[in-house]
Amino acid sequence: MSLKTTLIDPSTLAALAPKEALIVDCRFDLADPQQGQRDYLGGHVPGAVYASLDRDLSDLSRQAAGLGRHPLPLESAFNALLSRWGWRAGMQVVSYDAAGGALAAARLWWMLRLAGVQAVAVLDGGYAAWLAAGLPVEAGQPAARMPSELALRYAPAQLLIEPAVLRDRPDQLLLDARAAPRYRGEIEPIDTVGGHVPGALNRPFTDNLGSDGRFKPPAQLHDEFLALLGPVPPSGVVHMCGSGVTACHNLLAMEHAGLRGSRLFAPSWSGWVSDPARPVAKG
Questions:
Q1: Residues 173, 258: one domain?
Q2: Domain assignment of residue 31, given as a range
Q3: Are residues 119 and 160 in the same domain?
């Protein structure tokens, strides 16, 4: 099988031999951070390991540094995590969650891409698509894998953490993946301030999915994003959301549509409003 770099369908994943891929269950509930692991232990794609958004794909101890609600883990911690999972260079990684990739599955996809790993894909339609296909599941913890020695590094050019670069750049477009009422500042259930970064446009990540919970066809996504981007090239797009998680879904959608090279403002809205001096737009 050729390596997958954006999305993978359930039948293709099912055809992979267990040792050919690292499968990662990323189900997570923001309202109950332990629910995802309970769901995993009750049933998951055979051979999958579990990744918690809070524990494994974030370093919550760094929140006070203005890095948002879900700061990236240090490179050393991410390497240790991949080592425990037994990942090795060239091994296909497949992530999935219960939201069509909209939560932590796309986050893990982006983190691996940030670290230079290309063979990583999100299960299109998530765990629900796997079940709908009548494919087997297993419960409990899988057998431990042989740890590996890794030294991956994040690519600085793809990690935008300096808020000053987000404004007053005609060659750059900031795209906010939050739901429209949060973007407009009408509601804000999580962060301290409602609204959006001045000049940012809204592209709710849910717009990437069809009614079946799977990604829209690449050609449709291509046209929808180009209508938003106007003259700005994909490399000039910077994605954000509330804490740098669902924004990865928009980045993944653009890559799947052939619009490559966009970046992520990882601290996102929660990082932006950590400094009350920064301007806020509403409406």
A1: yes
A2: 7-132
A3: no
Q: Which of 241, 247, 257, 259 is catalytic?
A: 241
> What does the DSSP assignment read for 12-26?
HHHTS-GGGEEEEE-
Number of structural domains the chain divides into: 2
Full-model pTM: 0.95
Handedness of CA 47, 97, 237, 221 (dihedral sign): positive
CA distance 253 to 263: 12
Cα gap 168→180, rounded to integer Å = 23
Active site residue 241: yes
Q: Where are any strands of DSSP class E within 49-132? A: 49-50, 92-96, 120-123
pLDDT given for residue 170 in this prediction: 73
Predicted confidence (pLDDT) per residue in 146-203, tens digit: 778 888 999 987 777 677 777 667 788 999 999 999 999 999 999 989 999 999 999 9
**Domain edge (last residue) among 97, 132, 167:** 132
71-84 pLDDT, tens digit per residue, is 999 999 999 999 99
pLDDT score at 98 = 94
Sites in the chain below the pLDDT cut of 70: 1, 101, 161, 167-168
CATH at residue 102: 3.40.250.10
Q: Which residues contact 25 (CB under 8 A, 6 or more apart)?
A: 36, 40, 44, 45, 48, 49, 50, 51, 96, 97, 127
For residue 88, the 8-state DSSP code is -
Q: Based on the domain organization, do 118 and 28 belong to the same domain?
A: yes
Q: Which residues, 6 or more positions from 211, have their beta carbon under 8 angstroms from its beta carbon?
A: none
Measured between alpha carbons, how far apart are the two ends of the chain, in Å? 47
